[in-house]
């Protein structure tokens, strides 16, 4: 490395929380003009470490040096002063404000008592030219795309004079095209002399853009390697601590008769906007249909329509030939439809119920759990014990609250409950979101096992890799319509990306 | 037995206990600052409550409506709602009991009349709370706002009913109510203190609360809706119906408090100039009892003891009875701000935790 002092040097950082050591004597250096990736599973301690750098937490032991000088960063303002900027995963923008207003917020150029918007806009324009960040300074945040919102976040840090940028999972919400653009922006930033720490668990991005990678597992640094001298398999192995197969093992599907059939389904939001727009597709027994699409194109509404949580205005939804449109969620569930919801905390579990109580969330009213209006605790507990054992849900006991489980085990509990209902149709919405590699493997295997047993599986995911690996057939959703149907072996990321962005239609139904 | 041990193994009871002690300490400090003798004041307080059979009976009378309204607020809370309107529901219960107790007095024998008046009081209180439940379920209106508004409607509606249909000539109160919930057979033991069956009904209500919420299918639904309405909806539960039902049951508890007061204590209903405040004390009791039925009963006992005993403080030790409000306020503060209590307990706490691990 160069002889100059590194821009950031973390020395033996240790951070303890009650019961766990989140960071165990972590050391890390960031050189000037470098993109340094921080790789680790969920809960490995990446975010804790970056929150320490950004002044949100104080380390229990260890020190931080910026440009060779030891510093104490006790709040985010101090971090900003030191030239550290953070691009958060969930954007922190004021939606009704314009791009310029958001960028200067808190540091507005003033003219007397008034805010000098002219010079603000001018500064924004300059920054945008210098770094190749295309934004419309006068557009309101809620009118612009997610990719542009992220560029606004980046410009916020630059406007505050950041030389060190921390990106927290920046690609989670972007389309493949937007990811490519972001990569270009990051390269431009380092070319202009900035240094970047990139937090991610996507190996592809790390291989493509970073100079060095530090792998963290259970709060400890496992290794720091040059990206040029490694490969995804090695990185994954270091991250998880064992060998991982990326290719999902599966046999050819044995496709049976039609199970779920949607015909011209339309539904409007409260504001009268059509969120489902004459949508049609079909899922057959023994196959996994993957719905690919960018977040917000009607995926959530589609699931709600099928599961009875949303009324549809026209069209038909049938399960095994029976109409289920506009039935109550319970009626739909009794048609042997299981649903792994997108948001497991909000929709999948009652976090303050015990594991045991959560296992009967949809069946508590049936015999043998319900006997003359009273719940039979022994049978419910036995049922939970069986499921916990069968699906390897790691919990100290079934009496523990669901809240106390890790994300992966919460998801396992939901999957156990849903599969135990022995469904003919299994809907899995974002089933691996936020899970680490080990848990992802487990979930995907379960989906494939269900399909091999002749169940129809509908998989909705924003992760293209997941769609490509797990599905037998892919339907692309864009603005509430299916704009194309393809087989995974006949397509690639680029083509799917274009379809997801609405600029390409292809395949399948003649009526789309 | 093992269950009992489990209850005492957790710290859920330690925090309120310490909060109570700290509340008394704060009260003592305020008294010292004000130049009063806290020991004399507190002993006068307890002497007042436990000193004579009459006072002891009257203290129980004081606790009874607090048990009901505490249960009412706690039950709604467990189902995810904040029932500020227990006060209005008490008034509606009172009025219903008075109407039945006076208007059907001749027509029905007492052993039918009294239960009927009590049941109708409960049902009317429930329906009154149900209005707020319905508006929340069907129109999405926050129950805090509707229950507060309904308190005023209840106050003036019950005054109107008493004035128009039940008024005792020349007085600002209803006629005497022949139907009585009083436990007259205890008169000799408690020196004519106004004890009534409402206390027994309140204890039964607490048992019902526990069994219903934790043992039955409907209670399971209600708790699920209270803890996470979204997940409950996804799991196929009817959230709106549960909201209405929970508010109804909450209102029944409050309505019964009203029946106890008019049928068991006063035997008539006044025209109220302002809201009597049972419902608001019920909020404090519910918080103090950590919204658990057993806790609510204990909290009502404490709250009733302090309120009733505070009169003794002014007679016995010349300490203004309002000081007891500081004690009650501090206790609630310490329970709500559990962090402070845990901080005080920290030295003990860590030791205990370590022992557990070993």
TrEMBL record, chain A:
Keyword Nucleotide-binding: yes
Organism: Paenibacillus jilunlii
Primary residence: membrane
Single GO cellular component term: plasma membrane
Membrane topology: Peripheral membrane protein
Domain of life: Bacteria
CDD domains: ABC_Carb_Monos_I, ABC_Carb_Monos_II
UniProt family annotation: Belongs to the ABC transporter superfamily.
Matching Gene3D superfamilies: P-loop containing nucleotide triphosphate hydrolases
Domain ABC transporter stretches: 8-243, 260-504
GO molecular function terms attached to this record: ATP binding; ATP hydrolysis activity
Subcellular location: Cell membrane
Protein's name according to its UniProt entry: Heme ABC transporter ATP-binding protein
Keywords: ATP-binding, Cell membrane, Membrane, Nucleotide-binding, Repeat, Translocase, Transport
TrEMBL record, chain B:
GO cellular component, one term: plasma membrane
Bilayer disposition of the protein: Multi-pass membrane protein
Localization terms from the record: Cell membrane
CDD domains the UniProt entry points to: TM_PBP1_transp_TpRbsC_like
DNA damage is among the record's keywords: no
Transmembrane spans: 12-36, 56-77, 89-106, 112-132, 144-162, 195-213, 283-303, 323-345
One Pfam family matching this protein: BPD_transp_2
Coiled coil feature spans: none
GO MF annotation, one: transmembrane transporter activity
UniProt entry keywords in alphabetical sequence: Cell membrane, Membrane, Sugar transport, Transmembrane, Transmembrane helix, Transport
Protein name in the entry: Branched-chain amino acid ABC transporter permease
Organism name: Paenibacillus jilunlii
């Amino acid at each position: 490395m160069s002889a100059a002092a590194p821009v950031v040097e973390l020395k033996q950082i240790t951070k303890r929380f009650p019961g766990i050591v989140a960071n165990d004597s972590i050391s890390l250096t960031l050189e000037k003009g470098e993109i340094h990736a921080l790789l680790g599973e969920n809960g490995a301690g990446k975010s804790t470490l970056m929150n320490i750098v950004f002044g949100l937490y104080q380390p229990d032991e260890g020190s931080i040096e910026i440009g060779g000088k030891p510093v104490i960063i006790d709040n985010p303002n101090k971090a900003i002063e030191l030239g550290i900027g953070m691009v958060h995963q969930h954007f922190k923008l004021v939606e009704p404000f314009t791009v310029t207003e958001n960028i200067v917020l808190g540091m507005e150029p003033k003219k007397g008592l008034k805010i000098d918007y002219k010079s603000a806009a001018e500064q924004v324009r300059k920054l945008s030219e210098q770094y190749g960040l295309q934004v419309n300074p006068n557009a309101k945040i809620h009118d612009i795309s997610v990719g542009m919102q992220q560029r606004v976040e980046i410009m916020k840090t630059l406007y505050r004079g950041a030389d060190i940028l921390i990106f927290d999972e920046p690609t989670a919400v972007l389309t493949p095209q937007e990811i490519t653009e972001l990569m270009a922006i990051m390269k431009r930033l380092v070319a202009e002399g900035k240094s970047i720490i990139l937090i991610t668990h996507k190996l592809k991005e790390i291989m493509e853009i970073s100079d060095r990678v530090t792998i963290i597992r259970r709060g400890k640094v496992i290794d720091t390697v040059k990206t040029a001298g490694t490969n995804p398999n090695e990185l994954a192995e270091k991250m998880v601590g064992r060998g991982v197969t990326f290719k999902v093992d599966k046999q050819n599907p044995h496709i049976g008769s039609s199970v779920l059939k949607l015909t011209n389904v339309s539904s409007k939001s409260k504001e009268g906007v059509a969120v489902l727009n004459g949508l049609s597709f079909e899922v057959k027994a023994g196959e996994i249909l993957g719905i690919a699409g960018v977040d917000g194109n009607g995926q959530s509404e589609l699931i709600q329509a099928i599961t009875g949580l949303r009324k549809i205005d026209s069209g038909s939804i049938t399960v095994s030939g029976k109409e289920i449109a506009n039935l109550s969620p319970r009626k739909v569930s009794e048609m042997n439809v299981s649903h792994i919801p997108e948001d497991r905390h909000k929709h999948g579990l009652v976090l303050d119920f015990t594991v045991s109580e959560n296992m009967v969330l949809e069946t508590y009213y049936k015999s043998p759990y319900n006997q003359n209006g009273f719940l039979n605790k022994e049978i419910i507990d036995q049922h939970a014990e069986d499921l916990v054992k069968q699906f390897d849900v790691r919990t100290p006991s079934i009496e523990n609250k669901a809240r106390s489980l890790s994300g992966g085990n919460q998801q396992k509990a939901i999957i156990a409950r849903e599969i135990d209902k022995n469904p003919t149709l299994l809907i899995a919405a974002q089933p691996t979101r936020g899970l680490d590699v080990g848990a992802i493997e487990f979930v995907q295997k379960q989906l494939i096992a269900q399909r091999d047993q002749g169940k129809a599986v509908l998989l909705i995911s924003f992760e293209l890799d997941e769609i490509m690996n797990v599905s037998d057939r892919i339907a692309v959703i864009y603005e509430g319509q299916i704009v194309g149907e393809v087989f995974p072996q006949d397509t690639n990321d680029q083509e799917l990306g274009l379809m997801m962005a609405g600029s390409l239609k292809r395949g399948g139904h003649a009526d789309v | 037995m093992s269950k009992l041990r489990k209850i005492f193994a957790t710290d859920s009871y330690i925090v309120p206990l310490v909060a109570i002690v700290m509340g008394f300490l704060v009260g003592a400090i305020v008294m010292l600052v004000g130049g009063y003798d806290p020991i004399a004041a507190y002993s006068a307080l307890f002497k007042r409550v436990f000193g004579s059979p009459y006072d002891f009976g009257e203290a129980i009378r004081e606790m009874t409506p607090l048990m009901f309204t505490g249960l009412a607020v706690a039950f709604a809370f467990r189902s995810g709602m904040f029932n500020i309107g227990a006060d209005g529901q008490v008034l509606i219960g009172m009025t219903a009991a008075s109407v039945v107790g006076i208007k059907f007095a001749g027509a029905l024998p007492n052993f039918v009349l009294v239960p009927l008046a009590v049941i109708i009081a409960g049902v009317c209180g429930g329906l009154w709370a149900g209005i707020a439940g319905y508006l929340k379920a069907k129109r999405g209106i926050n129950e805090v706002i509707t229950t507060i508004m309904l308190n005023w409607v209840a106050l003036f509606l019950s005054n109107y009913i008493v004035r128009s249909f039940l008024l005792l000539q020349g007085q600002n109160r209803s006629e005497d109510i022949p139907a009585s919930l009083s436990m007259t057979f205890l008169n000799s033991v408690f020196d004519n203190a106004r004890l009534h069956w409402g206390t027994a009904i309140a204890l039964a209500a607490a048992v019902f609360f526990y069994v219903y919420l934790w043992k039955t299918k409907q209670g399971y639904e209600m708790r699920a809706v209270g803890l996470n309405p979204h997940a409950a909806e996804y799991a196929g539960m009817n959230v709106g119906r549960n909201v209405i039902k929970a508010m109804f049951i909450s209102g029944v508890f409050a309505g019964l408090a009203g029946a106890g007061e008019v049928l068991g204590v006063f035997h008539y209903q006044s025209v109220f100039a302002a809201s009597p405040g049972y419902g608001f004390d019920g909020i404090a009791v519910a918080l103090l009892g950590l919204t658990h039925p057993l806790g609510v009963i204990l909290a009502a006992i404490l709250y009733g003891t302090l309120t009733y005993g505070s009169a003794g403080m002014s007679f016995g030790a010349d300490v203004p009875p309002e000081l007891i409000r500081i004690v009650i306020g501090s206790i609630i503060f310490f329970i709500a701000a559990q962090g402070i209590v845990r901080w005080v307990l920290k030295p003990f706490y860590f030791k205990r935790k370590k022992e557990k691990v070993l």
